[in-house]
Amino acid sequence: MGVENDPEKAAFLREIAEEVRDETESNSEQVAAILYRVSDIYDESEDTTPQDIYLNMRYILNVKEQGGIKRRQ
User: Fold this and answer.
1) CA–CA separation, 24 and 30 (whole Å)
2) Is the four-CA dihedral 12, 13, 17, 23 of positive or negative sign?
3) pLDDT tens across 28-56, in order?
4) Are 59 and 52 in contact (CB under 8 A)?
5) How far is CA 70 from CA 47, 60, 66, in A?
6) Integer angstrom CA distances of residue 63 from 10, 20, 27, 33, 47
7) CA gap 1, 54 in Å, rounded
8) N or C: which end of the chain has fewer CB within 10 A?
9) Cα 12–Cα 30–Cα 71 angle in degrees, nearest 5
């Protein structure tokens, strides 16, 4: 889908995700998860597209907005 394999970019995004995850803000884990998922686009071992990532993250954010998986069931 036009996104090339770029291990350096994937590693950079994952490094930032780890730094963000260490923050104490409540949304930092969500931001870290999004960054990590985006990094999968540039990892040749991952079979994903930007659309897959968007749909996955939209689902996760919707579940969280509704109170989490336990509440949703």
Assistant:
1) 12
2) positive
3) 888 888 888 899 999 999 888 999 999 98
4) no
5) 29, 13, 10
6) 26, 21, 14, 14, 24
7) 14
8) C
9) 155
Instruction: Give the residue among 14, 43, 55 at the shortest CA–CA distance from 31.
Output: 14
| 59-68 pLDDT, tens digit each | 888 888 888 7
pTM higher than the cut 0.85: no
Count of H helices and E strands in the chain?
4, 0
Structure tokens at 49: 């597209």
Residue extents of the structural domains in the chain: 7-72
